[in-house]
């Protein structure tokens, strides 16, 4: 992927989270910091792109919008996977908080992107050693952006560049000071679909290998139907097309019925799996602003055997 595309997709997720924090109440996850990662020019460019995307994909809906702000809100709430980004982060942080009450002291944010946990959740972050792991290109962009903004990197944070398709996560974490004897929590959000399936399970095995028994992981994945255009929901097909166009195609979907067995083979025990219906019930009930659980996306909470 080109640098400009890495920057664009990293900032897009910050834009979506920032838009939600500024406009939607009650918040699913309030990320006041995300918006600060974008300049005014970048913000305006994303809004113009959203308006154009609505015109291109849903011309009738676009024609009914009173102004750009309404068009942007419609895209953010109804089409982009904002509801997924917010609810999976909320789920991971809820599970992390519970794990901390059981003694977890290390937190690995795998594929962190522009996640703002270190600044947004100081209440949790200050009590943890945090390892932000990401593809070297994405992480280099984030570090450049943080330095440009003058955000202070907390002393308990380590940045670990790893391409999960080429490098060993366990070796990189150990080299960064990860303590294999300390109960740990790993979040792995929005990444599995970008990896070939073998790399995804190799990563899970490495997590199980480097973390002591009882350590926990939360990840999300797309089911295999999301990859069948005649079975997938409209907005999932639309998103797949956008990602292909952007040069970031989704590669891997998993079968919800097979997850428990695949985790066991990887050294993990399935504690909980949330289907889109369960996610809807947990995070989107009684909302009337257009947010609802993204179709075909599942959340998993597992523990190291
Ligand atoms: C959609 S973003 C998710 C960011 C964040 N976790 C979230 O939930 O918003 C996907 C992340 O996967 C990372 N990623 C994609 N391919 C990767 C690879 N081969 N190795 C490591 N990270 C990768 C990207 O760098 C990016 O940070």
TrEMBL record:
Molecular functions (GO terms): methyltransferase activity
Highest taxon in the source lineage = Bacteria
Its EC number is 2.1.1.-
Q: Which UniProt keywords apply?
A: Methyltransferase, S-adenosyl-L-methionine, Transferase
Name the SUPFAM superfamilies on file. Answer: S-adenosyl-L-methionine-dependent methyltransferases
| InterPro entries (UniProt xref) | Ppm1/Ppm2/Tcmp, SAM-dependent_MTases_sf, SAM_mthyl_Trfase_ML2640-like
- GO terms of biological process kind: methylation
* Coiled-coil region list: none
Main EC class of this protein?
Answer: transferase
Annotated TM spans: none
Concerning its family, UniProt says: Belongs to the UPF0677 family.
| Its job | Exhibits S-adenosyl-L-methionine-dependent methyltransferase activity.
- This one is known as S-adenosyl-L-methionine-dependent methyltransferase
